[in-house]
Structures are given as C-alpha cells and as structure tokens.
Amino acid sequence: MEYIHHEVVIAGMGLAALASAARMYELGIRDIAIYTKGYGGSPVIAAINFVLPDNPYGDTIEKYAEDMFNAGYRIANKKLVKEMAENTLNGYDLLTRWGVEFAKNPDGTTKLRHVSGHTFPRSLCSTKELIGVEIVDKLITSLKEKGIKFYEGYECVKVLSEKNKVYGITVKDKKGNLENIYSETVIAAWGGVGNLFGSSTYPMDIKGNTLSIAKKAGADLIDVEFLEYEPMVVAYPPGAVGEPCPTAMLGEGAHLLNSKGERFLLKVRPQGEAGSPKTLLNKQIWKEVNLGNGTEHGGVYVDLRHIDREILKAYPWFFNRLMDNGVDLNKQLLEVSPMAHSFSGGIKVDSNYESTVKGLYAIGEACGGIHGACRCAGNAASQAVLSGLLCGEAVVKAIADKTGEKKEFPIEYNMDKEIYNKYVPQLKEIAVKALGIYRDGKILEEAKKTISNMLKNSELNRDTETLQIAESIYFMLKAASERKESRGTHMRLDYPEESKEFEKEITI
Contact, 158 vs 467, CB < 8 A? Predict the structure, then answer.
C-alpha cells in the first residue's frame, strides 16, 4: 500500500480546522491535508463573539474573560480562557483577511447582539445567512484556491501513536475502504458527542465515538461530564423540529411562557430573559414541564409575536424555516424544548492546544478545558476560531523540531453492521437516560455497570465503531458519576448543590 505522508494532517473541516489551516498557510506551511466526512455543526452557527475596538458598550477583554470563567462555573482553565480573550481581535482580523463579512449598522459600525451569558452585546452575525455558512464558504474557497488539500468523505477512525508520540491517522472512505495517513502533526478537529444521544442539533457526521479514539491514542480527557443542551429548540411543527431558536432572540425581547401563559423565568430572574445563562433556561424549562406546565410536545413556548418583523427577518435561516412550515412568528407562539447541542469536554490540551500525546493537537469542540462546566452562547464559534488560530501558530513553531521519522502501522479496524445494529441503539438509550439534563447517582452507576459488562463481551470487538461508542459513553458516565455535585450543565438530583470539593476539572 502506498505510503502517504503530509506535514500536517487535520481530522475535520469545521471552523476550528479551517481557521487553523488558514493561519498555518499565512505562516508558511503548505503541505496541509484536511480529511473529513462533513462540515460538522459549523454551517448552522448563528453567531460568533469578539470584543472589538468600536464596541460602544464599554466592553473589555478582561470582562469577556470574566464572563467566560463565570459561565463555566469557575472551573475552566484560566490560562486558556485568558489567552482566548486576549486574542479575540486576532481572530476577527484572521476572518476578515480571508474575506468574511460581518453585519454592519447603518453608521458603519459592526452590528452586535446580546446573547446568553454575556455582560455586553458582543455577538457578531451575517446579514445574508448564518455566519457559520459565511465563514465556511469563504475559508474553504480560499484555501482550495491556494492549494490546500481537502479529502472529503473520509472519516478518521484511529489515531496512530506509539510511546506517547503521534504518527498519523487511519481513515475510512464512503465505501468502507481503509488507509493510513502519516504525519508527526495531527490536529483533531472532529467535533463533539451529540449523536450519542437521541434528539440533538448535531449533524449526522458527528458520531461521538472520538473520545475513545483519543483515549486509545494515549490522550487524557477532561470535562467530559459537561454536555450542554440547547434550551430553545423547535419541538413543533415536525418540519422544523431540531431548529434552534437563537437565544439572541431573548436579547431582542422574546419571552418564555409555560402552558398557563406565565413568564415563569421571572420567578428566579426578575430582570427578564435577556442574557440568561443556558443552564438556567434548561433547568427552569425542565422544572415547568415536570410540574405539568409544559406544552403538548414536551416543552414551553417562546413568544415572539411582539418582536418587530424586520428584527425576526434578520435571522433569515430561522425565520424562513418557520414560515416554510406554516408558522408566522408574529402571530403564533412557538413550541421549544431542550436538546443535546454542544460539548464542553474533550481532549485535555496545554496552551499550545497539544494533548498529552506529542504531536496530537485538539481544537474546537474536540478539546476541553476552556468552557468548564458551561459556555456562553456563541462561544462555540469563538473558541473554534481562536483555538484553531493559536494551535496553528504553535504548530508552525513546533514543525522545526520534527525528525521526519518514517514509521508504518498495520491497519486495525473491524466492521460488522450486525453488531452495530444490535448494540448501538441500546447504548444510545442508556446515554439518553443517564446523561440527560438531570442525572441521578443510582442511574449513573447502573449505566456504568451495564456498559462495563458490554465491554467485556468480545463480540463488540467485531465492530470497532460500536466499541468506540460504548467506551466514549462510559468515559462520560465515569466523570458524571465522580462529580458528586450540581455545576453548570451537570445537574444531579441526588447532589443538587455545588460543592467546593468539586470546584475543579475531572481528568479521565
């Protein structure tokens, strides 16, 4: 089999991967190969946060860092948070250099929205479409024009490593063919874990088995108990189910109502819905539904009827999809409910975004440590771009130390659809029950025991993906079981309060 080698290999093609490739190209790296099965969730990103000099609200880098740390319930890696905030303008400049255009106000200043978890408006958008689409389209087009290699339809199924050093990845194409791609620099940009669960906002190319892939390569994992549920996802009508209602709508004046027509959030947040942390929204929606005050489809209502139509149209992806499905937001209440949406955990990295395995980097939703127990709205995109930028700069500095050692590995990956169909539905059912918005120690322990017994069954070895899914869920259960408190997106019925003992990150 042909020996394929690249200076840098990136697994993934979302915002983080593209930002990293763009920055490395600017700094002189040309042999960059991007292997990907899809775009991940990047095209559906509606907002990205930056602190800009023309911000009229008195916003500062220090305040942004403070908001991030507080939104993460004080356990995020302070150094990573500080560096992300300090580089916010560099991230904005990177995107504009590559042709990304942001919405402007009539006076020419950048249009800023106020979204959940932020003290000030600092969320940027696009006037034409989702900002994720704008960024992905501009960067992919420009990178391809400059000769960066994109291998689409390839899924990373294994990281090749030995003695705590990376040597490449194994990829699988659409037909199931396998091959090894060699590099002493591998950047994991493969996204989160949402499709380990039932309904989610994740695209289908994000399988969630990557925690196992990273762990088997020797990488440490961090914060994997923190799965964020998007609080306002369309629950009805069927044609729009899964479409997130932007939390920025709360900043535009939208209200949340229970089935009795009550603005229930005011009971715990008298100042109103605008700027509410997503964890609070999820918690209160869950409580209303369990009190019997939910809607027909298991959620609550978001009331947008009083919002100016031009403001609604400024979110065209959302407005148009609802209109296409017979919902006029100026005339009707919209049913929404929480769904799995983003992941705060992942591969543990240092300030260069390098893992505990030399040469294996992780960016975007593949890495943990920045968000802590929760994240501010819009920060998934900011973290993706800024981690990509900072990682790219670190890789360029480290390339000079690479030895160019040639090492080949056998391909080790098994496929058995029968095993997948037998076990994966069971595994996802366990994940949904044990790792929902609220967790319970007894259910977590039962789930751990069930999956532990599955992992002892040699039958799982017949299908590597099934084995990886089982291991990934097990790692999340282990961390959730160890964290005997409620913090951020990890809420336990048996430990309903925060504990000083657990004001720290858990490494697996």
Answer: no
What is the rounded average pLDDT for all residues in the chain? 94
Tokens of 204: 């289908």
Q: Which two tokens stand for residue 247?
A: 């939390």
What secondary structure does DSSP assign to 131-168, as a single string? HHHHHHHHHHHHHHHTT-EEEET-EEEEEEEETTEEEE
Q: Cα separations (Å) of 107 from 103, 110, 470?
A: 12, 9, 54
Check the CA dihedral 41-111-67-139 and report its sign: positive
Tens of pLDDT, residue by residue over 410-419, are 999 999 999 9
- CATH T-level topology, domain 417-502: Methane Monooxygenase Hydroxylase; Chain G, domain 1 (1.20.58)
CATH assignment, 8-154+344-401: 3.50.50.60
Query: What is the arrangement of strands in the sheet containing 346-348, beginning at the earlier edge strand?
Result: 221-222, 346-348, 367-368
* Number of other residues whose CB lies within 10 A of the CB of residue 5: 17
What is the reported pLDDT for 254?
A: 96
Q: Which of 498, 453, 454, 502 is nearest to 482 (CA)?
A: 502
- DSSP 3-state assignment of 252? coil
3-state secondary structure of 412: coil
From start to end of 50-199, where are the E strands?
Answer: 123-124, 149-152, 155-162, 165-172, 178-182, 186-188
Gap between the Cα atoms of 213 and 202, Å rounded: 19
- The pLDDT tens digits of the residues spanning 274-303 come to 888 888 899 899 999 999 999 999 999 999
CATH class of the structural domain 231-340: alpha beta
Please give the order of strands across the beta sheet that includes 155-162. Answer: 4-5, 178-182, 165-172, 155-162
In 3D space, the residue among 59, 357, 364 whose CA is nearest the CA of residue 184 turns out to be 357
Closest CA to 318 of 482, 51, 130: 130
| Domain boundaries, given as residue ranges, for the chain | 8-154+344-401, 231-340, 417-502
**Nearest C-alpha neighbor of 315 from the set 385, 386, 250:** 250
Ramachandran bin of 155, using left for φ above 0, alpha for ψ from -120 to 50, beta for the remaining angles: beta
Q: Write down the residue that tokens 């360029």 correspond to.
A: 396
φ and ψ at residue 112, rounded to 5 degrees: -120, 135
Spans of the chain, pLDDT less than 50: none
Cα separation values, 311 from 167, 263, 306, 317, Å: 50, 22, 11, 13
- DSSP H helices in 348-499: 379-399, 417-434, 441-455, 464-482
Task: Kindly report the pTM of this predicted structure.
Answer: 0.90
